[in-house]
Protein 1
Amino acid sequence: MDTELILTLQRGLIWDERVVGDLFLGGVGVGAFLFAFLLWRFAEERYLPLVKVAATIAPVSVAAGLGLLFWKLGNKLNVYQLILNVSPTSVMWWGAIIQGAFVALSALFAFRLLFPHVSLPRVLSASVAGVLGVPFAVAVGIYHGLLLAVLTSHPLWASGPMIVTSVLLFTITGVAASLLVYLLLRAFVRLEAGPSDVFAQGLKPVALVLIAAAALLLVTLFAWFVDLRFGPLPARLALQAMLSEYGVILAVFGIGFGLLVPIVVGILLLPRFGAGRTPPAGLVAIACLLLLAGGFTIRYAAVIGGQLPTPLSVMATLS
Amino acid sequence: MAKKRYAMVIDLHRCVGCAACDIACKAENNVPVEFHWSNHIVETRGTFPNTTFRYIPTLCNHCENAPCVTNCPTTAMYKAENGMTLHDANKCIGCRLCQLACPYGVIFFNKDTPHANYRDSQAAIPGATFSGREMAERVQAPLPYYNPARATTYAGVRPRGVVEKCTFCDHKVAVGEDPACVTACPADARLFGDLNDPESKPAKALARHRPRVLQRDKGTQPHVFYIREYGKA
Amino acid sequence: MTAIPMIADMKPAVDASRRSVLQTAGAALIASANGLPALSLLAPAQAHAAKPSPLGTWVATTCQGCTSWCSVQVRVVDGRAIHLRGNPEAKGNHGKICPRPHLALQQVYDPDRVRQPLKRTNPKKGRNEDPGFVPISWDEAMATIADRIMELRRSGEIHKYAVLRGRYTNLNDILYDKFTKLLGSPNNISHSSICAEAEKFGSFYTEGYWNYRDYDLEEARYILCWGTDPLASNRMVPHAINFWGGVRDRAKIAVIDPRLSATAAKADEWLPVIPGEDGALALAIAHVILVEGAWNKSFVGDFVDGKNRFVPGREIEPLQTLASAAGATATNGASDAVPVPIFAEKHTHGLLAWWNLELKDRTPEWAEPICGIPAAQIRRVALDFAAAGSRAISWLSPGACMQVRGAYAAMAAHALNGLVGSVDARGGVVTHAPTVTRGAPAHDAYLDDIAKEGLKYPKIDQRGRLEFPAMASGRPGSGVVTNRVADAMLANDPYDLKLIIAYWSNFAFSCTGAQRWEEALSKLPFLVHITTNASETTMFADIVLPAPHQMFERWGYVNNKQNLHSYTTLNVPVIKPVADVRNEETEVPWLLAEKLAERGFDKPLRYFKEMFKDPETGQAPTNAQEFTLYHLKASTRACWDKTDPNWGKYGDAIDGWEAFVRKGVWNSKRFTYGQRVDRFPTVTKKFEFYSSTLKKALEEHAAKHKVTVDDVMEATKYVARGELAFVPHFEPAFRHGDPREFPFIFFEHRSRLNREGRSQNCTWYQAHKNCDPGDENWDDVLKMNPADVARLGLRNGDLVRVTSLQGSIVVRLKAWEGVRPGTVAKCYGQGHWAYGRVAAKDFARRLPRGGNNNELHVSDYERLSGSTARHGGLTRVRVERV
């Protein structure tokens, strides 16, 4: 018989779905912000409605994520301690500072776009907010990966691809969320008169970016898998545990419907993103939805699956 | 005087696996029953009749390179001057990142207000036996065997929403006593002291025996060392 | 409900007038009425300082969580007990304690404790009957019981009164002994024989010592444990734990135990004997020692010419001429040489007889299939053991002898000490240094006619009958047969019982065939249970009296030995009692005596008042508390009173009662080796391999019943006939249940966290249960070898029904390599269906956590000693998925 080991640990998940939500929404937020800023800065004005939607999503989404995280805190009343105490070695402390700044900047950016006529000091212009916001957005995106990647106690997290995954995920989910919300609003709220029927005209680069990012994510996930599969024993065991528990949903919803189907759909629709053509909005929306669901699934499997108990053979290693 | 570097050496040859350390720790530190500041790993290996059993006492390793400290966003978890890894419940926001960061599973989170059994108003036989609340009220303490000395350096009972862990009984060390698990060990298997003092018990033991630590590859540099073997190798 | 006093109304057991008396008597050691700490004298900081120090005060008392009875200290802060440690003054446990004392904190502050006297309102009794307990006053409780006693005395049935004692302090001589006799009942029934009497049988019928032995761990070079798990249980736990590291450095350790025990895990050899076959193993070891010439010649002696004649299978003529001794062929011609004893035995008796009757055929190869231990291992252990000579310890425990046919296994295992000469030797198996305490004064003058009449009745437990020789200390019919009481009650044989006071005992849980006790107690007209918790037995009680916790809430003392020191350690009320309790051994009989005196029967009260004076002042007691204290002081007087002739003579010279209380323990001088050799209190004064002592006892018993010793053997389920009855010999294990129907041998073991059966309501017990090898926290697993688990198509963690001829329990299955295929093991202690809300899974619905082994064990006996057989795999079971 195998060696039997017993160690009584505290039961239950340490970080639950709320943290998954935080990371997911945070990713959506920074992705949407970057999308909005780039469109606003470099594309034509007719995308302004889409820009506004994306710009609005950014602070709302990140703030909602932070709200989930706050809800998760055991001692909420102590949260001011984050500001009172400087903890430069803590990724989470940096994350709190950066996210705070990002929410402020992205909110200002969105505000300036939505209410351009409200008079504010010059320094608070959309340009300033946007330009300043970009590095914070990128930092937040990296932070989401780094937060987990520095926890060497969790082999599933402590790997390079973890950070790359996080960056790619925010790109994909941010853009997808922006498009989806825009399409939904257009369909059901008719938020703005204008050349709405040509929403996708000229968005081919965006589609290309999405497809490329999704494809890259596939590659990264594979790299992650390889990294763990051929890594040290704890990594192998952690991967095995995660796959046996979440492998199926990861494969079906994360990779199959979450990445492969949208990639195929994207490639098929690509010609229709060209100038003067309009891709079917419904199909685009579905593809975006799948991407979002896929992104959430990957986060979920990584965060929850990464917390499966460390094998006791690892914990009992005396040397 | 040189800076202290407190450490513990556990002599597995002397340890008999009785768990007196675990229980004494609970009493000393007002630890909820579900938590195990002082804990153990038990291992049964082999096939009958060539079966062996061993017991590895565990506790916070008071790592030199403590991931819980590194990752704590509020510095609630911190390294004291004397090498102990300590926790300030007043700064703790309950994010539980320390728990995730610790490879040893020695940090515990108070999901609920602890010691619920001494706040319960039900009696096993109403009118004939006590309720937990009644028992605690009778002796005017949050739990009847509450140790007030624990509150001299840490929350006497850690409130809901924060984590807690072994402190090397810093409140006892502060008054010149050994940690509770050391005193309670009937086998004298635990040696506690200052590694910077070559004459201290742990320093001498480490000089004589090959020290081992748990999960060395994690690079945490624990201050809890193990020497010799529990049973037949 | 209205009778429950509010917390603010709660008064300790001492009122103001009593207090003043005690204080003037110079013994202000008892709780005062205004809530100051119990030991105000010892805790001046708390009594006087405005703000108590969080460090509090250490106060000495005694732990009776197991039979080690260690002297401990309690940290008292603010009148609360908060921590435990060993008493540094104690030489027995030398300042160490095992895990058990720590658990006691959760016992004394257990919310499920009985808070005040209760009476039953539902006359129907049974496990599932709600007793309908309602609180009553102590006065009412005492009056009710006194009425019952008077009724029995009036009707000439006072012998139908019984006291069932479980654990006890040495103050038990009041309630258990004197009070029972003064009433006129022969029935003071102790728990002793459910504990370990068969073990004493081994040492008594070899070296005349009806007691547990001490062991010189510091000097030993080989330790052979017979089911002994000294790191977890067995009478010297902290001492053994503390010395074990050193023992492992100096000595080889072999553990014979069907389970990989805590000690087996830290031994050089594990011999997983088939349960009940220890005797075969011991005999094979003895055989090897003789055949290989490895016995201790300076203790046992040798063949006159130094030539070893122990050849397997060959009998040895004890008287031989030197010529034939030299090996010459026998001739028909008469020889002039006079036959001489060929073996010159020194300090032992009957080695050749043992060889010829038994040992010559007991080869390791013979033993292997019987006991399951490979012959090579038997040989190796035997020779290593013998090589350590007089520093080899054969350490017997209940596991190897509390078996239906365990008496001879006990003798065989203990006889090994004789073979290597470790009896009474440095590094060997020793007895005890003397203690100086004494019991209660003679009571004969206070026996009235009714009492004298009552005492003529035989005891209820059927001891001394043909099938129950119960030969404690060599006297047939002198040992208790505790567990037989239930059967006797059910059969009204020799008569029925009408009133029982049971204290510090829970036979409805702790006796094998526990269901019989439930039945017997259901039938009993009146049961008084004195208990801390509402236990299984309590559920059948008519009156429940809350008991003080032995470590924190009462006076008392006990004697024991560890580390070659005997000691007397005090039970001290270190805190104000949590519940409205009275000392069950002294205060309750006093209060009852007062009520009896009111009813016209004043002998007990007069005895108490006239015979128990304060040794310091000469004052007679005026109340229950004074009585307790005076008796305690008088009993321990030689420990602390300079004027006592024995003071300082045998151990510590402690100056004064208060100093004694402060120190908490009196230590004897260190044991002196070698004083018993050739003065053993056996028939031959020698260490007997052929037990003339047992022969005498058995023949006496046989004569009493006008039968032969063979008939006695038959009646007591032994297979041996003839002379074999007087030597350690092989007896096949006796098991209840057909192997085809019940394929597994069920055996049990102890937990290092068991405070006997009383710690299971502590959450700390449950939360650390897996420190018993193979066990799981918060559970009570049946351990089965993984091969068997697979064979039965079961899985680790399954809920299984375990069924024997006696009953059935449902527990979780644990696949574990620490038990032999074909056997299943479970720890004793769990399976409470009462006791409290932790011990029981659902107290209200009487659902146990796990299952009680005693509901599986068929009640049977080692009858020569009167013991309850609970080991040796006496019960076969079958295991099925639920």
Protein 2
Amino acid sequence: MEKTNRETLIEVKNLKKYFKIKRNVFVQAVDDVTFDIYKGETLGLVGESGCGKTTCGKTILGLYDATDGKVIFNGIDVHSLTPEEKKDFTKKAQIIFQDPYSSLNPRMTVGDIIGEGIDIHGLYKNKEREEKIFELLYTVGLNREHINRFPHEFSGGQRQRIGIARALAIEPNFIVCDEPVSALDVSIQAQIVNLLMDLQREKGLTYLFIAHDLSMIKYISDRVGVMYVGNLVELTTSKELYKNPLHPYTQALLSAIPIPDPKMEREKKRIPIKGEIPSTINPPIGCRFASRCKYVMDICKEAMPKLVEVDKGHFVACYLHHKEKAN
Amino acid sequence: MKRDKILDVKNLNVSFKTYAGVVQAVRGVDFYLKEGETLAIVGESGCGKTVTVKTIMGLLPEEQAIVNRDEGKIDFKGEDLLKYDDTKMTTIRGRRISMIFQDPMTSLNPTMKIGDQIAENIIIHERKSKDEARKDALNMLKLVNIPNAEERINQYPFEFSGGMRQRVMIAMALACSPEILIADEPTTALDVTIQAQIMELIGELQEKTNTSVILVTHDLGVVASVAHRIHVMYAGQIIEKGTVDEIFYSPKHPYTFALLRSVPKLSDDKQNRLYSIAGTPPDLINPPKGCPFAARCEFAMKVCRIKQPEVTSFGKTHESYCWLHHPKADKNEVPEILLRERVI
């Protein structure tokens, strides 16, 4: 499964996104995050709510301006584009939103929702445009009669399909999937995930897949990044992450996944995490997990550990493993 | 361990009047709950699991809900809750049966200090003085592991995180030591690490107080760790009942099987496609005449579309409603794929 020839599609370099809430008070939603996304892969981003994974995805797309750092897409910096270039960029990078209920305009027909991008970029006109929309509806498992209907006439799963068709309409090569299945039922989740994977195979798409469901992330991703309070704490292939998690937070997170198997569940030992998640308004200076970590050392509270490659392709931001490497 | 039945629900039917027509949300549900056990009701959204438990609590909107109060029965230690009016229900609700709701963000009163919210219950039901009730509330907060309970008791819900609010909800629900605790998707809005804490807490408290728990959820993972018995609901009906091991290791109904298969396991590889159930649940304004799952079932036979399946028992605790088990069915046995493909 290892790809030998990995071409980088997106480089995220020291990306920071702070939200101002008062004068001189900032929420450090994403703080100094660095990683690459390779062409044709699915990079999963997991973490608990409020850890900054959605903000990270949206900043990569330029939906938020970065506070600091760079996002290089195909050699160009996403955050210093002229309006002209920006339009060109949005044709290549799209997003599928979490909530299929609030992300579709209730007053637009399905045809217009899907066709909006086509119109903006002037890709197809009239008959051709209609044909293209039919084709997209068919691709996502809806049919041509749906073109004149409104979002409220569809179920959650169907609406998510409309959202996918909209993202695909302008033939992007990169899609941020922001929790695309968390609002859906299990049986419908599987339908949507299979659809996303089929599309990736057919069209060679690259995904940034954001989710809090660890089993789903493991299933769909080639590599997985774990976020905690605005930091990326571990990044490696999905197999390696679940087999050999290094960061204490990742370990605790993985042990908390409920397994749908009573016998395994009875034998399983959970690594408890005590305490509360620190606030992103005044996060601790050192490692942000230090206050809840059972392996905490003095150095953890003094300076934030850097994300270091400790094994081939396995990055972790934790002093426990940095030391090992130095020795 | 011999345990007595504490709750016995018989032939429960609930419908709702809507502009589009009458939605038959719960259609002939039967189940019982024993003392000290955890019963899980599992199903997808809209299958009627929440409506079922809200009927037990007497929390349905009177204007729209139609409940078959005459033919149905909710026997709670010899009292038929379906015959009770609202005044009589208040002596049961919150005191002998209480409920934890799905969304801890919206089910607490944002304008009341959490101490007062817990004490309210105690003052009403146990007729204690304000000071005593407050002491009890403090003990409850400590019981559910809220740090700095003495300070926290004077705070408002917005000052609590999601997991903490759910703890407050549990403290409130358990304040009058109820005999039955109904938990309606108690961890759906929470993160996995917090979810694990809350489920553990409910388990510990149950052991301490011997409360019976009805756990309503769509998450099969949560169920595996805590439930004793599981009922699977689909389109307003319970389609399979069994112990945890029976449901997970020898599911009988094609829907249960499909539900188990469509959850991604940690052992799954990207190479294998995720199993998905084609189609969507039926419209309950015009529910199908036959088995509600027939339209999505890969083993459906002619009879499935015409007639409701009858119950087939497999041992004392395991029941399934499916025509495949009928001796006269074309294929007399469970289809091979159900047996061949182990769930895990």
